[in-house]
Amino acid sequence: MIRLLLALFLASAAHAAAAEGPVLLIDVQGTINPGSADFIRTSIEEAGRRHAQALVIRLNTPGGLLTSTREIVQHFSESAVPVVIWVAPGGASATSAGAIISVAAHLSAMAPGTNIGAAHPVGPGGQE
């Protein structure tokens, strides 16, 4: 079993070393809205054009619109480039829509002193 795990680790490391594309980083801060969804969509497209290894989204949001959140989740599911959510810097949060977006990414990570949670979708008129 240990040999199998070691072989898988070495194969993964060799694959990562062979990758040559960049890792792109963008910031999404504040309320999730149609502008946020469009920015993420165009960033995913740019990452694809540049053959990026990953798109890292540094996220700090109190939440936002359900429609925009659904669009972002759809963009993640259609992305050929892995999308990584990084809740940062310390003191940042991914609440409500931010929590849903974090869970939808290919990988999520959090800086020390950040928080995630209270994921209750809200419609455009404030309805639940």
Mind explaining what this structure looks like?
With 128 residues, the chain is of the alpha/beta class. The protein has one domain: 2-enoyl-CoA Hydratase, Chain A, domain 1. It has helices at 2-18, 34-49, 66-78, 97-104; strands at 23-29, 54-60, 83-87, 93-95, 107-110, 115-117. The chain has a four-stranded parallel β-sheet with strand order 1-2-3-5, covered by helices on one side. Strands 4-6 form a two-stranded parallel ribbon. Helix 3 links the parallel strand 2 and strand 3 (83-87). The longest helix is centred in the first third of the chain and has 17 residues, at 2-18. It starts with a helix and ends in an 11-residue tail after the last strand. The mean pLDDT is 88.
List keywords for this structure.
two-stranded parallel ribbon; 4-stranded parallel β-sheet; alpha/beta; 23% strand; 128 residues; 2-enoyl-CoA Hydratase, Chain A, domain 1; globular
Give a summary of the structure in a few sentences.
A four-stranded parallel beta sheet has the order 1-2-3-5, with helices on one face.
Give the ordered list of helices and strands.
HEHEHEEHEE
- What is the strand arrangement across the widest sheet? 1-2-3-5
Indicate the CATH topology. Answer: 2-enoyl-CoA Hydratase, Chain A, domain 1
Instruction: Report strand %.
Output: 15-25%
> C-alpha Rg, in Å?
16 Å
Number of helices: 4
Helix share, percent: 40-55%
